[in-house]
Specification:
It contains eleven helices and 17 strands. It is α+β, with helices and mostly antiparallel strands. The strands form three sheets. Strands 2, 3, 5, 6, 7, 8, 9, 10 and 11 form a nine-stranded mixed sheet that branches. A hairpin with a 2-residue loop joins strand 5 and strand 6. Helix 3 runs antiparallel to helix 5 and helix 8 packs parallel to helix 10. The chain is elongated and about 75 Å long.
């Protein structure tokens, strides 16, 4: 998804910081470890939005020796000119007001509101700019420094111990999430460095995208029923939506579905999952009837039968996602359901016809009668599930 411009006119003020500090759980999910790490994800999401818009391809995250987190990107840099109607410099407006912007989420302001201290550095318009905050209050106007040809934003924040139950970041949790993000965004290089105790760095970059994600997830499950990870990407420029899907079946009884909208985990599903699950039985039943892999007298394969042993990644990217709830765990964009359903049906049908041996193996698995009671579980993406 590309943007033609990104300047102060993109910014619309919604609320101040008081509501965030009063009810932090509404914005980051909790004041425990989950909410603490959500702070990092929000800042990384700000940088990732630049990459999705075609501006920047590198994000470097560091857990600093004194317990803060620094996120560096090579995007365009936050606008520095005065924006209307607040009359504030763009940096200050973005960091002190909840807002709806054409590119970025509200998260960067939320992070500032829930931090005891935050420092921002912007490389834009030929200069380096800096500003510091304490609990979202600017200590001084943005300061202009030396000239530079570089562009991008660096945000360093220290979570407020008066808000959070813990301020200790987990390298393992962050690394797993960043591997997940890298696999969902081909061409993105995302690194994590820990400067506490001894310095340690990991770097993530994946060329096969969601296909790599499914391969990793299935490496810990049963034996694959078919060797090829089914993967495809579809895009509609008219409605500015793209979908990337990867799926593979194995011999386990569990169903593992991982869905995302603009790389945000949609743990409660939404319209993209509805479209996926509408198309999957349709495509398999049509193929099974066509190839006479189901007796005429038998009923169609059910959704549960087809889901047995399935690991799937469903990733959609759209310009104006509609999420249900402030924590954005369920996608409500109505057009997404129709588009995903159409894309899955077309691409899966084509794959089944090209790969009859593997297709038959999947259908046999769905029709197989287990002698033991099947316990169907729905595995949502958690920190331990990332690639």
């Amino acid at each position: 998804m590309s943007e033609t411009s990104y300047d102060a006119s993109c910014i619309q003020v919604l609320e101040g910081r008081a509501a965030v500090r009063k009810r932090p759980g509404m914005y980051v999910g909790s004041t425990g470890e989950r909410g603490l790490h959500r702070m990092v994800y929000e800042v990384v999401g700000h940088a990732l939005a630049e990459a999705l818009a075609g501006h920047g391809d590198t994000i470097d995250v560091t857990i600093t020796a004194d317990g803060g987190v620094r996120v560096v990107d090579n995007g365009r840099g936050i606008p520095v000119e005065v924006e209307e109607p607040s009359g504030k410099p763009g940096i200050e407006a973005v960091l002190t007001e909840l807002r709806a912007c054409t590119i970025h989420s509200i998260g960067i302001c939320v992070v500032n509101a829930l931090s005891s201290r935050l420092e921002v550095e912007v490389r834009r318009d030929g200069f380096r700019w800096t500003q510091e905050y304490e609990r979202a209050v600017p200590l001084a106007p943005p300061a202009r420094h030396e000239e530079t040809t570089e562009t991008g934003t660096t945000i360093t924040f220290w979570p407020d111990a008066d808000i959070f139950e813990t301020t200790e970041f987990s390298f393992a949790i962050l690394s797993l999430r960043f591997r997940e993000l890298a696999s969902l965004n081909k061409g993105l290089a995302l690194s994590l460095t820990d400067e506490r105790d001894t310095t340690h760095t990991v770097r993530h970059s994946y060329e096969q995208g969601a296909q790599d994600f499914v391969s990793h997830l299935n490496s810990r499950n049963g034996e694959p029923i078919h060797p090829t990870v089914i993967a495809f990407v579809a895009e509609d420029e008219d409605i500015t939506i793209s979908v990337e899907i990867a799926l593979q079946w194995d011999t386990s009884d569990s169903e593992s579905i991982h869905s995302f909208a603009n790389s945000i985990r949609t743990d409660e599903g939404g319209t993209h999952e509805v479209g996926f699950w509408t198309a999957l039985p349709e495509a398999f039943n049509a193929y099974a009837r066509q190839e006479q892999l189901l007796p005429e007298a038998d009923d169609d394969l059910t959704r549960d039968a087809i889901g047995r042993g399935l690991t799937a990644v469903i990733s959609v990217k759209l310009d104006d996602p509609c999420f249900e709830g402030a924590t954005r765990t369920r996608l409500g964009s109505t057009a997404t359901r129709t588009y995903v359903q159409k894309a899955v049906h077309e691409h899966l049908t084509a794959w089944l016809n090209r790969n009859p041996t593997e297709a038959a193996a999947i259908i046999r698995n769905a029709t197989h009668t287990h002698t033991r009671t099947r316990t169907r579980t729905r595995t949502r993406t958690s920190d331990s599930d990332a690639p």
